[in-house]
Write a structure and sequence with these properties.
Number of domains: 2
Structural class: alpha+beta
Strand order of the largest sheet: 1-2-9-8-6-7
Helix content: 25-40%
Largest sheet: 6 strands, mixed
Strand content: 5-15%
Number of strands: 10
Low-confidence stretches: 242-279
Shape: rod-shaped
Distance between the termini: 109 Å
Length: 282
């Protein structure tokens, strides 16, 4: 082999080594950048999951307040509060539960829910609140109205109840008046939103969000409807009146207010009893 050939081969070997070095460098850069990007993405996913879980944990805790929507804020509603659970034991049909919060969003209750064939319940003496609380446990939303809610607002509530869906019931509260000058209150199981006026949009929004929640919510710090999706009670309101331990006396509820005398009419899916007809509307 001549001298020139040897020099040419040496240069070729040098070029090949340099080419291989550059290829290794490019591979390192490509795989290194790709690996770093993958690690960054993975870290981002982990951080997002941690923050998301933390936010969910907070939103499921007692006392957490979900900000009022635009429709709810326009109706003078507070945010939706996660309430502490107050039990869910069945009581006898003639036993009155002394609810510590007005209105209750959970608590011990009658074994028979109110019929869901009715959408709106008139102000009648001794309407059994304990039955309505059982509806909450079944995943219903209750729109409570006290004696201070103006008549035009009651009329608006009656109309809204007809279009709010089959998991909404409007029920009068006859054990005093609500706080904060908000005489209409929406509740789901362990969820409360107090409103200044009745808003059909706010009602429908609350129903969409809180009616029939996932059964998984029953294990949260602030539970949501442990019997979600269950039906209302039988189409019989006579226990609502005669089964109560407090009979009509003309002196009103235990709050000392005068008992209302309006009766209303009923339009259930099936034929009601005379007591039913005197007790509720759709």
């Amino acid at each position: 082999m001549g001298k020139k050939s040897a020099e040419r081969n040496a240069r070729l070997d040098t070029l090949r080594r340099e080419q291989r070095r550059q290829e290794r460098r490019r591979s390192f850069l490509i795989y290194g950048i790709g690996g770093l990007a993958a690690l960054t993405l993975l870290a981002g996913i982990i951080v997002y999951a941690l923050l998301d879980n933390r936010a969910k944990d907070q939103s499921r805790s007692v006392g957490y307040v979900t900000r009022a929507s635009t429709a709810a804020a326009a109706a003078g509603c507070t945010g939706v509060v996660n309430d502490a659970s107050h039990g869910n034991t069945h009581v006898a049909a003639n036993q009155t539960v002394d609810y510590t919060v007005a209105p209750p969003s959970s608590g011990n209750h009658d074994s028979s829910p109110l019929p869901d064939a009715y959408r709106f319940y008139e102000r009648i003496p001794n309407l059994r609140i304990e039955r309505a609380v059982h509806n909450l446990e079944h995943g219903f939303v209750i729109g409570w109205y006290d004696a201070k809610l103006p008549d035009d607002q009651v009329t608006a509530l009656r109309a809204a109840a007809e279009s709010a869906g089959d998991r909404f019931i409007a029920v009068p509260w006859e054990r005093g008046e609500f706080t904060e000058n908000k005489h209409f209150v929406l509740t789901a199981w362990d969820r409360t939103q107090r409103c200044a006026v009745v808003s059909e949009a706010a009602i429908k929004e609350f129903v969409r969000t809180y009616a029939n929640p996932s059964p998984a919510g029953a294990a949260w710090d602030s539970p949501t409807a442990p019997e979600s999706g269950a039906a209302g009670g039988p189409l019989d309101l006579s226990p609502t009146i005669t089964g109560s331990a407090r009979q009509p006396t003309g002196t009103g509820s235990d709050s000392g207010t005068t008992a209302p005398t309006s009766t209303g009419t009923a339009a259930p899916a099936d034929t009601p009893t005379p007591a039913d007809t005197a007790a509720a509307t759709r």
